[in-house]
Design a protein that fits this description.
By secondary structure, the protein is an alpha+beta fold. It has 6 helices and 17 strands. β14 and β15 form a beta hairpin.
Length: 273
C-alpha cells in the first residue's frame, strides 16, 4: 500500500462538526487486534467505519495517551463496495495519520476514552515508536489475568474467563471488567474457589430451601431435598468488583442462578433451558 492515502472523502463532513474540531492534527496511532467495524450513519444514508486504537501521540500538541479509543471515517461508495476498510491497517501496526481531534472527550476512564478522532488520511505505515510499542505490549498483557490458584484467565466479551475444577465439576469462571483494578474481583474469586467446599454446601442448602414446587409437580416420584442437592451441577461463577457474585447450576432442564456476596447467598432465579 502506498502513502499518503486519503481515507473516505478526506474532509470532515458537516454533520460531524459538533463532534470533532475543524483543525487537522497529525497523530501516531497504534492499532489494536480488533477488526474494523462498520455501521449505518445516524444522520443519513451510507455507512461509517471505525477501528480501535490502543495508544496515540498527537504530534501537533505533543499529547500522549495509552488506552482504547477509536478512529472513525466515512468510506466513499467505492471504498464500501471494495470493503477497503478491512485492508487499511494491520493488527498492532503503528501509523502516522491526519485526523480531527474530538471537540471534547465524551467519556473517559484510565483504560478507555470515547470520542476518538476523525480520520482523513494515512500518511505513513509501518512506523516505530517506543511509547506506542510499550502501549501495544501493555495492551497484550492486559488481555490476560494470572492467578496461582486459577491459572490464566483470558479476556473475552464476558470478562476475564477461565475454568476451575469445583469439587469435580469443570466450571467456567469469569472476572467482571465493570470496574478496575481487575485484581480486586480476581482476589474475591480466588477466595470463593479456595473455600469451595463451604460455599458449595451453602449454595446447595440455599437452592434446596428455595426449590420451586413445580419441580416435584412435574415428576412421578418427588425429589427429597438431599436428592435435589446432589443433582445440582456447578456450571459457572461470575465474580464482581465488591465480592458480589452470580453462580449458575444446572439441574435437568433447569438453570439455577444464585446471587450473593461475601456474607453468602441472597437471591435465586430459575429458568427452563
Amino acid at each position: 500500500m502506498s502513502y499518503p492515502l486519503k481515507v473516505g472523502g478526506g474532509v470532515l463532513p458537516e454533520y460531524r462538526r459538533d463532534q470533532y474540531k475543524d483543525e487537522v492534527h497529525e497523530f501516531l496511532v497504534a492499532i489494536s487486534d480488533e477488526a474494523p467495524v462498520s455501521g449505518e450513519k445516524v444522520s443519513g444514508n451510507g455507512w461509517f467505519a471505525s477501528i480501535a486504537i490502543i495508544g496515540a501521540i498527537d504530534l501537533t500538541t505533543g499529547h500522549r495517551e495509552k488506552g482504547r479509543t477509536i478512529m472513525i471515517w466515512d468510506p466513499t461508495p467505492e471504498e464500501q463496495q471494495k470493503e477497503a476498510n478491512k485492508t487499511l491497517f494491520r493488527e498492532y501496526g503503528i501509523y502516522r495519520v491526519k485526523a480531527h481531534p474530538p471537540a471534547k472527550f465524551w467519556y473517559s476512564t484510565p483504560s478507555v476514552r470515547m470520542g476518538g478522532m476523525y480520520l482523513t488520511e494515512i500518511t505513513r505505515g509501518h512506523v516505530t515508536h517506543p511509547f506506542l510499542a510499550e502501549a501495544v505490549s501493555e495492551y497484550k498483557e492486559s488481555l490476560h489475568l494470572h492467578s496461582e490458584l486459577l491459572g490464566t484467565l483470558d479476556l473475552d466479551e464476558d470478562g476475564y474467563t477461565g475454568s476451575f475444577n469445583w469439587l469435580g465439576a469443570d466450571t467456567k469462571i469469569i472476572v467482571s471488567v465493570e470496574y478496575t483494578p481487575y485484581t480486586k474481583p480476581l482476589g474475591h474469586l480466588e477466595d470463593f474457589c479456595r473455600d469451595c467446599e463451604k460455599n458449595d454446601r451453602e449454595l446447595r442448602r440455599f437452592a434446596c430451601d428455595n426449590m420451586p414446587d413445580r419441580i416435584n409437580k412435574e415428576r412421578e416420584k418427588p425429589l427429597t431435598p438431599e436428592e435435589f442437592a446432589r443433582g445440582l451441577v456447578m456450571d459457572r461463577i461470575d465474580m464482581y468488583y465488591d465480592g458480589d457474585y452470580d453462580v449458575y447450576f444446572r439441574f435437568e432442564k433447569y438453570t439455577v442462578n444464585i446471587s450473593g456476596d461475601r456474607d453468602g447467598p441472597r437471591d435465586i432465579w430459575w429458568e427452563v433451558e
